[in-house]
Amino acid sequence: TLRAKLLATYLGLIVLGFGGLTVLAGWQIANSAYTDFSATLQVNAALLASSLVTPEREDHEEREGHDARTPVTAITLDTTSLQRTAASVNGRVLLLDEHGAVLYDSVTDASRSSGFPITENSPTAYTFAVDEYGVEQIISTAPISVRGEASGYVQLTAPSSQPRKMVWQRWLALGGGFFLFAVVGMVISLWLLASLTRPLARLRNTALALASGDLQQRVPAPGRDEIGEVAQAFNQMATQVEAMLAEQRAFASNASHELRTPLTTIRLRTEPLLAGELDPATAQRYLAEINEEVVHMAGLVDDLILLSRLDAHRLAVGEEEVDAARLVRRLQQELGPTAAAKGITLQLAMPLTPVPPIQTNLNHLHVVVRNLLDNALKYTPAGGKVVVTVIQQQELVQLQVADTGRGIAAEDLPNVVKRFYRADKAHQRQTDGIGLGLALVQSIVDLYGGRLTIESAGVNQGATVTVWWPLQQP
To answer: Taking phi first (over 0 means left), then psi (-120 to 50 degrees means alpha), and beta for anything else, what does residue 308 get?
Structure first.
């Protein structure tokens, strides 16, 4: 799981980070402990050697040829000082002559003590050796100088277990600190993991509820971090999915109604035709009505296919030179009988200056203008008027269809270009259609980089639909 992976990562970082620092610090502390302890022995040995040498004056008769004021030195054996120094370091003091023979041992009788060998580096460094009792000792040797010559040596020793004990104490302190930091780091890691996985769990539960069909589910209280942004995006997606499903349900309802009516008409016409019960005139009229319904259904299927191709970005931009004004005049002639039958005036408002041709696909522009005119005629009552204007606006051609029909309510204006949306709901609708016309127009206009606007002062105030179409594609 993600939680286990993150926890393993955090613990690995804690162990590697704190553990590495602990080992490095312990190694440095161990080295410094031995160095500091040995340096202390060296200093005490040197001080002890210098304390054993005291100045004195010799008689002039005994020092013939020397100035009576010339000071000489002598070795003074102060056992109390030697014992005190040995006790201070919990060690042992040996006094050796210049040949290395033991003159004094603070632990045992000098006659039975062998001391430690004097090497070339002994007076300036510490060494390790095992004494006669089998205990490893740290030895520091300091020379006793009398008249500039080494008259003996002081050896100050201490068991190596003393600095080792200090090292272990410091290792224990470091280990305790590492354990404490590791526990605190683990607690912080668990808290951080909970803060990360809790919103993910909410997101998962919401997704599962949404998948089970509860489209009202949303991620509660998404935060402001990256996971919160994902949750907000998920909520937006859920809202869009809910809207799409609602549109599809509306489409299914509208499409079933639109298809049921012509199919019923066709069935009612084909049954008597097949039975041969009709006179020739009635049969001819039935065949014409069947053809009309088939054309209506074919147009619906064509619209759906065109929308699906637009969604899949499989519709290529046309490069033909199309005369928009000529296309509008042709559609006026085509729809003129329909307008006249409904008592609607279909009027064209063309400028005196010819409008330059548009670079497009003739069928695409035909779909746009045909849908706009169909909508205007569909929603304009008898006695109304539909005015179509085609003018040039700089690098654009403006196609405008204005009617005096039922108009659009303010709350419906933002939605009329949505697919399957109808201002008059399916169970109350007074006109044919499934709400694909303006959606199709919007998709085609967007494909060519144009712009579509819809304006209405309100219900029964008419509507104006304007398309700005670029003369040439970039």
So the answer is: alpha
